[in-house]
Amino acid sequence: MKKILLVGKPNCGKSLLFNQLTGLRQKVANYPGVTVEIKSGAMGEYEVIDFPGTYSLSTMSIDEQVAVEQLTLRVNDDETELVVCVLDATRLERSLVFALQAQLLASKANKPIVYVLNFIDEVKRFGHNIDIDGLANELGAPVYALSARSLDGIAEFKNALLNAEYKNFNPLVPKIPLETTKEVVDFSRALAKTYAINKDVVLKNQNKVDNFLLNSLFGSFAFLAIMFVLFQSIFTWAAPLMDGVETIIAGMAVFITQFTGQGVVTDFLNDAIFGGVGSFLVFVPQIMVLTFIIGLLEDSGYLARAALICHKPLSYFGLSGRSFIPYLSGHACAIPAIMAARTIESPRKRLITMMTIPLMSCSARLPVYALLVSVFIPSDVYWLGIFNLQGVTFFGLYMFGIVTALIISALLSRSSITDHEKSEMPFIIELPSYRLPHWKPLYHRVINSGVQFIKRAAPIIFMVAVGIWVLGYFPMNASLEESWLGSIGHFVEPIFAPLGLDWRYGIAILMSFLAREVFVGALGTLYGMEGADENIAGLAQNIMNDGLPLGTGIGLLLFYVVALQCVATVATLKAETGNSKLSWGLYAAYGVLAYILAFLANALI
Amino acid sequence: MTLWELHKGGTANISHLCEHLDDSVSTRLVEMGFETDQYIKCLRRSIFSGPLVIQIGDCVYSLEQALAEQIFISTSNNN
Ligand SMILES: Nc1nc2c(ncn2[C@@H]2O[C@H](COP(=O)(O)OP(=O)(O)OP(=O)(O)O)[C@@H](O)[C@H]2O)c(=O)[nH]1
Ligand SMILES: [Mg+2]
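YS: structure for the whole thing
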């Protein structure tokens, strides 16, 4: 297939343009360094390739080297038809430095290059007009002004690509690509002087907002408040939605089982399907609320500021301000977060960040937290009269994960596991303009997070629920204790007895090493089978009636905060660190630490 | 003097980068806009010697002390 390469400086809108051209949904967000892997998609007979953004083609870190080597390779590839270099029209000078370097690279490989002048909607909003033809002549290549967000000029650009119209462009004077960094930097500056929008106009709003959000006093307060609202809202905003889902599932159970009469089929539906699989569906709204808030933050431009605010505190723990963004996205899922750590300049800090990301409470833990919190914390108590105590407890669990991660980071950075490299890129990050979120992609992302959550966990939970149900139902008419499952359970019970947990929890915990959400599904099935006539949706009520002591419950919660029960995360760690021993070692170490914490909580509280 | 000594609201021109700086780091800095004579403005400073925020050309960057101390500036001929 003929290939088109999309390149440019970080945060200039390559991925959004890629999405508009290919109809795909690559991650787009308002901070530099979102895309860390090369992605491709089809547009007509072409394959469009989206690259990670870099400020230049000279490289700093090993990972950048990989990205630039890839780019050089692709540019020289015979199948490559065209290089599209995206420029941020509101940051023309910086965009041009990369653009001129890309021009040299393309001309050496005998490949044509065209420029996209993105963010034209913002330029218009500021009432500025860029002389496109003039710029095209200076650059010696066609320039297409467009907005990947408002879609102005997208259709024309797509046509130009599909019909190879860009080949008709003839510059007044043929352009000789610039060779040295000095030439490139000077020419960019000169071009920006003539063509760019006045920078003070662009930066005025941004600086005004920063006066508040980066203010030493107010800024720290705002940061803490945003984090608190983030974690509290997962609980409070999702509650009504969760009740809704719960009611629907209970209704469906009653409706469907009226046709199946009494017997094995009904028992199976009630216990395994509605009790097991259903009890985990209840948590989908929480996952979606979390994705929504993280999405809002990512698109606002605040995250780069948060990285700056956190840099100093994090550096005491051997981390960088850049660790903040992977940590935050680790609260949705550890896998993309570990990949996002590639943007951390220092290899050491990157390794420490990757090793501690699994301690961030990812969305798979939400069902477990929500279930246990609703068992142990009364729902109608308010802390200081405003904050729901359940919400505060949630916040506490997230904080416990973060604090543990910081302590472990500090220990790691003082140990020799992470070798001390000599040349490290110090912390520097561009602060992008603040923008209102782009609603449509955000909406898709939220829906998608729910769908993915179900797709990923439902089959495992279904199989576990069915497996548990079969083992627990037979031999027929025996009690659960005497079933096949009961026998297995009693075999593993001694392992969990020190944590104050009986065999049912033991089975559920063991199963959750497949995927954390399985805990809720497995427990739902077990309780469903015990009390055949009780309300199947009320798993929390069932556990409450069972009288699990508070200390045991807290121990169980801490266990789930710390344990790394996710094989996919280990696989990602292995791929990103290239160290299999380290990855499985972490899996074991976090498991042991989780066990010790649960033991202590059960013994001491 | 170095960029780290620039107070909030202060402006200057880049004079040169410390020669002990790693080659790759200094090239990168030049490409990010930190080149001789470039006009630079300190937008804010953080408490406890946290990173400072500067505007250079059309970009706003935040950078930490260890780096700012390697960038030399002159405040003489600016407006
Ligand atoms: N107003 C406006 N916003 C845009 C436009 N293009 C992109 N954006 C926004 O700019 C931000 C960055 O877009 P991305 O597509 O993630 O940028 P990128 O070049 O892929 O960034 P990296 O992957 O980090 O290199 C997002 O918040 C987009 O919504 C545009 O034409 N107009
Ligand atoms: Mg991108």
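YS: worth flagging: Chain A has a mean pLDDT of 87.
IM: good catch. Also The longest helix of chain A spans residues 439-473.
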